[in-house]
Amino acid sequence: MRTMGEQGHVGPVVIQPRSIAAAWRAKHSRGAAARYCAGATLLRLSWEEGERAPDYLIDLRQLPELQGLAWDGAACTIGAGLTLAECLRDGELSRRLPALAAAMRGVAAAGVRTLATIGGNAAGGGDLLIPLLACDAELLYYDGGEQAEALPATRAADRLGGAGGAALLCGLRVPLAALGTDRSGPLGSLWYGTDAEDARCAGARAGENTEVASAAARTGPEAAATAAATAAAVAASGLAGAADGGRGFDRYAKLGRREAFAPAQVAVALNGRLTRDGTLRELRIAAGGAGGVPQRMTEAERLARGERCDEALLRRIGEAVAEACALPDDPFAGAGYKRRAAASLVVSELWEEVCACW
Ligand SMILES: Cc1cc2nc3c(=O)[nH]c(=O)nc-3n(C[C@H](O)[C@H](O)[C@H](O)COP(=O)(O)OP(=O)(O)OC[C@H]3O[C@@H](n4cnc5c(N)ncnc54)[C@H](O)[C@@H]3O)c2cc1C
């Protein structure tokens, strides 16, 4: 790329640092005139939408510290510079972190995923933050000190990528304890386009008690087939007997508009543990969508803890999610619609998980 501004050329100056410390210094010294750049897929989108390109781009692609994916007994650590396509080629990641993998598969199209990085997504406030929030992940940030510091994903909004601060996202740490070892398989639902949206959110448009209406709407052949497939996968994995402490689950569902290749209108992630009799031993829920900061649904989580997941509980969980979910209006959907859609997604994902226990 050529230079702009001070030297009279067109386009930003590209800086190629050799270490994260050098990248940080380049950003820190230039402030808002410089932007970190990984796959540049989100940056390009913002320029096409009219945002002014920066004077300097700090290219992170060649930094070895941002590469690699490692498992230890306690966590999976993923370098911020890995592309979504690279992560999805790792079979262990798809098997052990199914909600995160489902969220990656739901980002844009395959061509974009070969460039887009996990760090650019999380730092730019993308969809991956939602499953990361639900599994208590940590974001590893370098901010000029001796080493990177771990920031809970619940505080990701403090440092969302932008023109301002120099903090550099080095990687993600997903604790395996929060996920359990008895995973039920690569579950996750992506709901695109008008038909799926209508089926999923018919209740949401209709008015009250929509969460259970939506879940109930999926007790037909489609839901039965999904539940049967899920139960078969659980049985095949030999994990169905983990009844004492419950069976771990990790789910992601996204409502989007395929036609526009747009990010999620609404997406939810659920992570928890369910016993054979349908008692929720643990539940973490996160919800987010385009233009909003993802949030944990703490009141819904509190209501669910230790309770049997029956229709009455699902109704209360749905109401709590609808109450807490604060996504902004956009040209295609209002905030009220998004609240009800988030509630419907959470309730139907839980319902499917309960069906898999039978
Ligand atoms: C057609 C299309 C469809 C898309 N659909 C989706 C979608 O469905 N869901 C979704 O979430 N996104 C979507 N995106 C947006 C984007 O592709 C993804 O969010 C992608 O993962 C961003 O990664 P990147 O490496 O390209 O980030 P970049 O564009 O390089 O950077 C994004 C932001 O993060 C900052 N940044 C990058 N790396 C770091 C770092 N290590 N530390 C600190 N800051 C950093 C940058 O300065 C910038 O502000 C779409 C984009 C396109 C073009």
TrEMBL record:
PANTHER family xref list: XANTHINE DEHYDROGENASE SUBUNIT C-RELATED
Organism of derivation: Paenibacillus sabuli
Record keywords, A-Z: FAD, Flavoprotein, Oxidoreductase
Top-level division of the source organism's lineage: Bacteria
Domain FAD-binding PCMH-type intervals: 7-179
UniProt GO molecular function: FAD binding; oxidoreductase activity
UniProt-listed Pfam families: CO_deh_flav_C, FAD_binding_5
SUPFAM superfamilies: CO dehydrogenase flavoprotein C-terminal domain-like (SSF55447), FAD-binding/transporter-associated domain-like (SSF56176)
Name recorded for this polypeptide: FAD binding domain-containing protein
SMART domains listed in its UniProt record: CO_deh_flav_C (SM01092)
